[in-house]
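pasting input
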Amino acid sequence: MIVVRNIYKEFNRVPVLKDISVSFEQGKTNLIIGQSGSGKTVLLKAIIGLHDVDSGEILYGDIVFNRLNFKEKKEIRKDIGMLFQGSALFDSATVEENVIYPLDMFTNMNREEKIERANFCLKRVNILNANHLFPSELSGGMKKRVGIARAIALNPKYLFCDEPNSGLDPKTAILIDNLIKEITEEYQTTTIVNTHDMNSVMEIGSKVVFIHEGEKCWEGTNNDVLQSDNKILNDFVFANNLAQQVRNMK
Amino acid sequence: MNMLYHVGKYFILMAKVFARPEKGNIYYRQTVREIMNLGINSVGIVVIISTFMGAVITLQTAYNTENPLYPSYLIGLGCRDSIILEFSSTMVALILAGKVGSNIASELGTMRVTEQIDALEMMGINSASYLILPKIIAAVVFNPLLTLISIVVGISGGWLAGTVTGVVSSQDFIYGIQYAFIPYYVTYTLIKTVFFAFIITSVSSYHGYYVEGGSLEVGRSSTRAVVYSSIVILLFNVILTQLLLS
C-alpha cells in the first residue's frame, strides 16, 4: 500500500501539487485521472521519487520514501516497476537486453537465468520471437508490452504506469489495460496508472482519483464516476458526445 | 549570474558523475562501447584531416620561405612543430568537439526527452555516472592515441605533399623533422589532449543531460555543446600553453 500525505510541489513558484492526500491499495489498479497539465505526471513522478516534493510524506508501507537517501531509495526501487508514457526503452539495446537491464542492476543471476527470466516476462506480455529486435523495429503496442515486461522483471510490489495507452488504437489500448489489470491481480501489486482515457477508467479503475489544477478533486470507484455530482469531474468525464449519450441513456 | 548558475550546475553534475560506481563490470562494458563509439569511430576523420592539414602546412611553409637564405629542411621542422604543438591537440580537439560533442549531447538529450534517463533512475542507477563517466574515461584514454595518430599521419601527409610537389626533397624534410626535436612537446600536446578530451565529453554531456522539452531542444543542446566545448577548449589552450611552456 502507498499513502500520500499532504504533498505540495511547486516549479518556479507555481504550485503544481497542492496538499494532496490519497492512499493506493494493494491488488488494485488505482487510477489517477485528470486533464493534461493537471499535475498527474508530477504526482506520479513525486511518488516514485523522480521529483522531490516540497512538503508532505510518501509512504511505502511504513517507510517514508521521500526522506530516504539515494541508497535507501534504491532498496525500495527494487520493488518498483514503471511503464513510461513513451515506453522509455533503451534504443541501443535489444528487447531482451531491455528486459534484462533491471536484472543486471539488482540481481546476481547468471546470464542463463537472466535470459530465462526475460523470456518468461516477454511471454507473459505475449511478445514472442522478438528478443533480438531493437525498439525502433517495434510497433507502439509492442513497445508498451516490452515496457511492461521490463517493469515486471523483478517481480515488483509496486507497478506504475504513465499514460499506458496513449498513442495506441482502441483495441491495443484495451489489451494493454487488461494486461495491467491481470498483472496487478496475479502479482498482487499496488498499481498506479496515470490516464485521461475514460475507457481505461471504466475497464480497470478499481479506485479512481481525479486531479484538477493540482488538487485532489474527487475519489471513488469506476462505477461511482458516472454517478458523481461533482461538476468538475462531470465536465471532464462527459466532455465528449459519446459519454454524454451514455449518461442520458442511464 | 546565468553563467555562474550553469558553472555551478556543471560541477554538481560532475560530482554525481564521479560518485563511486555501483556495478563495476557494467561500467567496464559501457566504457568499451564508448571507446568504440567515440574513439575508434573518429580515427577515420582524424586521419583524413591530419593528412590534408599536414600537406597544407608543408606547402604554405614552403611558399612562405622561398628565400634562399632559409634552408629547406626548415619546411619539415615547421610542419613537425605546427602539427605537434597545435594542430594535433587543439585543432583535432575542435574537430572532435563537433563530431563527438554533438553526438554526446544529442544522445543524452534524446534519452532525457524520451524518459530513458528517468527509467535508469527508477532502476536505482546513478544515471549521470552510468551514462557520462564511461564517455569521459573513453575519451581521456583514447584521445591521446588519436593525437599520436594525427601527429604521425600529419607529418607523413606533409612529407608526401612536399616531395610530390617538389617543394622539398625527401631527405631535407626528414632531416627537418628530426632537427632540434624537443620530446617535451609531445608530452605537452598529450597533456593538452587529456584536458580537451575531458572538456569535450563533460561539457557536451552537461548540455545533453539537462535538456528540457522536445526534439527542437535536443538540436539546440547539440549546437550549444559544440559551441561551448570549443570556447572552453580555446580558453584552456591559452592557459595550458602558458602553464606548460612558459
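fyi Strands of chain A lie at 2-11, 14-24, 29-33, 55-60, 63-64, 80-83, 158-162, 190-195, 207-212, 215-220.
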